[in-house]
Write a structure and sequence with these properties.
450 residues, alpha+beta, FAD/NAD(P)-binding domain, Polyamine Oxidase, Chain A, domain 2, five-stranded antiparallel beta sheet, 31% helix, binds flavin-adenine dinucleotide
Amino acid sequence: MAERAATAPGAAAVAVIGAGWSGLAAAVALAEGGLRVTLLDSAPRAGGRARTIELETPLGPIAIDNGQHLIVGAYRQTLELIANLGAGGLLRRHPMHLVSASGLSVRAAPLPAPLHLAWGLLRARGLGWPERAAALRMMGGLRRGGWRAADGETVAALLARYRQPAPLVSRLWAPLCVGALNTLPVDACARTFAAVLRDTLGAQRDDSDFVAPEAPLGALLPDPALARLRDLGATIRLRTTVRALRPTPAGWRLDEGDDVFAAVLVALPPWSAARMLEPLGLDVAPLAAFDPEPIATAWALWPAGNAPRLPRWLMLDEDPARRLFGQWSFDRGVIGGARVAGVVVSAASRIANEPADAVAAGIAEQLRQAVGGPGPAALRIVTERRATFRCTPGRPRLSCDHYRSLAPGLWLAGDWTWPDYPATLESAVRSGRQAAARMLDSLAAPPAAR
Ligand SMILES: Cc1cc2nc3c(=O)[nH]c(=O)nc-3n(C[C@H](O)[C@H](O)[C@H](O)COP(=O)(O)OP(=O)(O)OC[C@H]3O[C@@H](n4cnc5c(N)ncnc54)[C@H](O)[C@@H]3O)c2cc1C
């Protein structure tokens, strides 16, 4: 359990705008640091882009995620926070096993790093010797080079530089790139991909673990974080859209409110933050330069007693030419009376103009081919149009104190303010915790030094 501070009556008041995972992580750290926290979010439910939704289906309503999320052992701060909030028991760890419908199988061996991966690649099924040797050569080369890539290099260029054979690219690297960066290799940032490989496949064995939740996303972090905040006396205002920030000599005010805050943390996606900050006369061009990229999740349901045997997870070999867009399938167990699987379509701008029926039919077909048995009785596709930023080499890199000199007391958080990583739960949590730590330090410092 983290150390908790009781909020002192004279403690500084701060506002956190946005109750996604970055804002929640920050708000908890600030409240535990003894500040008077007000957390505001326009949505009726906390969690932002990683939240629980109630989905109506022909087999009855289910509480499920807005989109299937993959959590890995490298999400150290996220897993630590979930555990601190008392929800660690909802997670199950499994050693990495990349397994695809068409027979690829790469398993982390029970050996110390980096042998776990080397052995796993050597023993891989579904890849020939040239592919296995090429994969090991690239991982070795990246490790020796400090996991760096050239400025502006794309993942496609990186794979070409390491002469990765086409079957290895299509069966392993491309699905990993699209799954982790939500961006096609031809556009994706090689440096970020290398950082992801460094911290998962290239790190300790348990960093590459798959961590499967046994509850919808809200129960992992948003709900317990709100409970912790209430315990610590924080004010929580959901269904409250903040439209404007007003700097005053005494501190920050929100919209027409009378409350004055010593500091404000804007924990919003870059496009929303740009809208909020532009009227302050700040240069928001770097924020506006982030492009959103959709992710679609198809929730497939079978009556619990009449479902095929579903693997815990499975890579589905996509084939856009045949309108087969599903990339990963995850078994979510029985919810209500239904067996539920989540099929992920990342980099989903590609399907924006596809008829929904055709996408659904393709996914049902992929499931039938991969797991056999009866096809799903129902399939509901949930598309998040602004799921992540497109993770390109040229995207801006900003820190939490980007506007510090022009707007003292104004801080930023959000997945896009953790420049090393793509848009993930871990970058959101890390960014929130880092901004909170810096804000706490700054408020403890004498006014002249802030
Ligand atoms: C479908 C989908 C699948 C994903 N898959 C994965 C995955 O497998 N693994 C992974 O790690 N990550 C995944 N992600 C990414 C991950 O969910 C995000 O990176 C993370 O949730 C971002 O958190 P955040 O706090 O930075 O932003 P957000 O979650 O966007 O939080 C911002 C909050 O601000 C609120 N808000 C906006 N404007 C205002 C305003 N004016 N006033 C008040 N409140 C406002 C919003 O309601 C929201 O709650 C996925 C995302 C989606 C959508």
